[in-house]
């Protein structure tokens, strides 16, 4: 009996890929390098959007029922991911003066921003390939890894949905407005659940887009604070310079969120969540930093301190006029 072309040999080794498979892998890699998605993912999403495959979603039964009443029709699950190498980071020359250092690490922050941007762009592209108008329930996973020093990753996923037509009928004589103000080909992203989408709609608001930001702030204590810690080592005390670092990082990420919301012509942001990670790190002054164990030329002086990384996200919302309100429906408990 002859073995199938894709069956492993008796030693457990996979057979070589065919020329067609190799070409597709090369084309998919080129797409990823350009910020796109693989060919196989595109074909699957197009088939799902056309109804050739059954949809899958992260919606619970209750969320699915409420979303259906609003006219949202699930298309399928979508995902965006990116793994990024963090570049060289160094402290400004004035950090060698011996006083307190508190500054945003622009290289580290930009690495997180670029990783997230590529992941969100791929999530949006998957939704567009499926013919969706929006993505609901967007969840985020991000991390730095020991298996690749200096590498960080972002993964976002959610359920792509289609929205009602501009004045489509819902219920008995009621209508809803189209919930995609950006127009065709630009799906709206939000981290709202089905119930939250319903509640927001009932309040007269609609999602304007997902807003996300990251700030990496480095705090190296002054000699005065280090001396104070040594003198009062056996007493409870607040490390005020480190506390200030958290507030500095918070102001940076909230300012970035506000800028993104304003760009989406939003009235506000709901469900803002801030995740933080803090750890001791060392960075060279005027040279290359140790983040990811990078070495390099530059100053031999190093500053040791606390690296605070804050990730913030929320859903920007916009007030909508003349949205129909679905009145509560009476229910009778037949068990009494």
Oligomer state equals single chain
Output the CATH topology. Translation Initiation Factor IF3
Based on CA atoms alone, the radius of gyration comes out at: 25 Å
Which regions are unreliable across 5 or more consecutive residues at pLDDT < 50?
Answer: 1-6, 166-183, 287-298
Arrangement of strands in the largest sheet: 1-4-3-7
Structural class by secondary-structure content: alpha+beta
Report the order of strands and helices.
HHHEEHEEEEEHEHHEE
User: Overall mean pLDDT score?
Assistant: 80
Number of discrete domains = 1
The helical percent reads: 25-40%
| CATH level-1 class | Alpha Beta
- Overall geometry comes to globular
Distance between the termini: 68 Å
Summarize the structure.
The protein is of the alpha+beta class. It has a single domain (35-167, 184-319), classed as Translation Initiation Factor IF3. The chain has helices at residues 19-33, 39-49, 61-70, 106-129, 194-202, 223-231, 240-263, and strands at residues 73-85, 101-104, 134-144, 151-162, 169-170, 174-175, 188-189, 205-220, 268-284, 302-319.
């Amino acid at each position: 009996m002859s073995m199938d072309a894709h069956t492993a040999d008796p030693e457990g080794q996979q057979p070589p890929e065919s020329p067609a498979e190799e070409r597709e892998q090369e084309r998919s890699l080129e797409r990823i390098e350009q910020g796109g998605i693989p060919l196989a993912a595109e074909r699957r999403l197009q088939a799902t959007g056309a109804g050739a495959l059954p949809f899958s979603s992260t919606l619970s039964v209750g969320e699915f029922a409420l979303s259906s009443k609003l006219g949202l029709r699930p298309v399928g699950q979508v995902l965006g991911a990116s793994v990024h190498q963090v570049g060289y980071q160094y402290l400004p020359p004035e950090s060698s003066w011996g006083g307190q250092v508190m500054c945003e690490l622009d290289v580290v922050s930009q690495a997180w921003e670029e990783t997230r941007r590529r992941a969100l762009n791929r999530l949006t592209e998957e939704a567009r390939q499926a013919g969706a108008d929006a993505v609901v329930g967007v969840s985020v996973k991000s991390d730095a890894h020991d298996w690749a020093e200096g590498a960080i990753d972002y993964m976002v996923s959610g359920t792509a949905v289609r929205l009602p037509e501009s004045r489509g009928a819902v219920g008995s004589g009621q209508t809803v407005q189209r919930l995609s103000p950006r127009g065709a080909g630009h799906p709206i992203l939000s981290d709202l659940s089905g119930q939250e989408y319903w509640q927001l709609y009932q309040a007269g608001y609609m999602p304007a887009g997902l807003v996300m930001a990251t700030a990496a702030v480095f705090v190296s204590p002054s000699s005065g604070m280090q001396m104070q810690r040594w003198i009062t080592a056996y007493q409870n005390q607040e490390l005020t310079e480190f506390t200030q670092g958290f507030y500095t990082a918070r102001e940076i990420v909230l300012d970035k969120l506000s800028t993104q919301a304003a760009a989406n012509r939003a009235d506000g942001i709901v469900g803002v969540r801030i995740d933080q990670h803090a750890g001791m790190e060392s960075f060279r002054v005027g040279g290359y930093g140790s983040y990811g164990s990078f070495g390099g030329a530059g100053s031999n002086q190093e500053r040791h301190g606390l690296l605070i990384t804050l990730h913030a996200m929320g859903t920007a919302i916009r007030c909508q006029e003349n949205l129909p309100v679905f009145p509560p429906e009476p229910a009778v408990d037949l068990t009494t």
